[in-house]
Input
Amino acid sequence: MELMQLNATDKKISDQPAIKKLLSRMPEEVASSFTDEQLTHLLTAVGSRSWGKHKVDFRGTFKLPFYQWRFYYVLLAGRNYRELSRQERRMSILITTVVSSLFLMFSAGLGLLILYLVKSALGIDLFPGFSLGIWGWFKETFL
Output
């Protein structure tokens, strides 16, 4: 989540490029009639859709009581349509490889555990006199 503050020492809301562009398309008497709070809400409403459509688009503003600053938050999630840079592609491949490897190792381990439990439940003894102790623990805990 992104959090930003707007206060009197920051740029005035009317100096924001999106607001300037919006106000320039209005008659002067209408453009000068907006308060800073109204301009902030206009910026949120107009500026928010320039990113496109997202599956998760959670935006809002809030003002803390007895505090002069307003805060806004943005949580966006969805498919990335941007062209990735070379470094981003490499990182994506690395992360995909690591996650896939971890998933395969976990799946293989779980599969072997299930096979071992089935073998033990059927009473099959591959190495006479040797046990890992997993079947005994499983029977005590779950059966």
